[in-house]
Amino acid sequence: MRPLQPLLALDIGSTKIACAVGVPHQQTPGFELLGSSLVNYPVRSSVWLNDPLMVSRAIEQAVEAARGTADCYRALVAMNHPQLSGEVVQVAIPLGDEPVQVRSQDLHRLQASALHQVLGIDREPLLVQRLGCTGNGFDRVRDPRGLLATRLSGTFHVVSMPMAARRAITQMVESAGVEITRLSYSLPGALAGVGDSELAQQRVVVIDIGGVSADIGLVVEQMLQRLRVLPWGGMTLAEAMAAQLRVPVDQAMSWSLQGTGCRKPDVRAIVQQHWDQLIEAIATVTQGEPLPDRVIVAGRGGLMDGLAEWIESTTKIPTSVGLSNRVNRLGDVPQQVGLATAIGLLEMATQQATPRLRPDHLFNRLLHRTRTILTEYF
Prior knowledge:
By secondary structure, this protein is of the alpha/beta class. It has helices spanning about 50-65, 105-120, 165-175, 185-190, 235-245, 250-255, 265-285, 305-315, 335-350, 360-375, and strands at about 5-10, 15-25, 30-40, 75-80, 85-95, 100, 125-135, 140, 150, 150-160, 180-185, 205-210, 215-220, 225-230, 295-300, 320.
């Protein structure tokens, strides 16, 4: 039997590049981890995507360090952005005068209608999830194919991103000699990277704190139901602290990692102010919903001392840091947390025994390029 091609996963963050390489199992779901790497940018900044050349070089270094002798140049890529937005939309389409079976093309029409209603001309979908469909005699069914209906209604959660950000990510990855097979949102990957099978049946709040943004999402049975993006992260907190206390950014970064345990009252006040926003965001995404089973804190910004314990004591929800059980032998805790999303991409891609991943067709690339040119021109 011909061996399967290794998979390359990239998590492109605002302060680092995380890379993981794995080969899928032949007969069973899952993969074997061949290598991983974590490369920090040489210059830290609270402005995301401000230096494409620097990011491209970091991607190249991370890929070379992770893949070793593995011959893989197509990558699963995850990203986030301070200007991401999530919106829940309800749409409906007619099927016929008499009840007919719901087909795959009907679901495509329903999703296209949702995207048409949500997306602006300068935005693209990063994640589209069908939360449920309603028709004649059925309600909130995620996959209604084969059921009978005259009219099909659906609820979708659409996470959209600026078109310029997608274009920049694509150019930076391709400049590093890697082709994007799939571009996805980092939050589901951060949850999948934990590798806990019980989470698949639970209601989980995932908090991904990066360098310049914090993403808070409610995931119910592996479906992202709600999302809120806060405009602060590890770097923005450190720079705000440095400006207010008039100290170097490196010193402020060290203080911020001490959390509310820092001896300086001014530092504790600034940290507390930012932490309070997380509690408000959790309340927003869980409003009207049953109490979540767990809170998972992902991203290296979540390593601030005492953050997970403080969230648990404030919300009364069991809270833990998102460490991947696959990488606990590879290094210290910051490395384990930093690699979790890249590992999660491989987990999601190999849930089936023989994953089939294809790069974007040339027609789709031309379509995206034409849309970009028209947007910039007008």
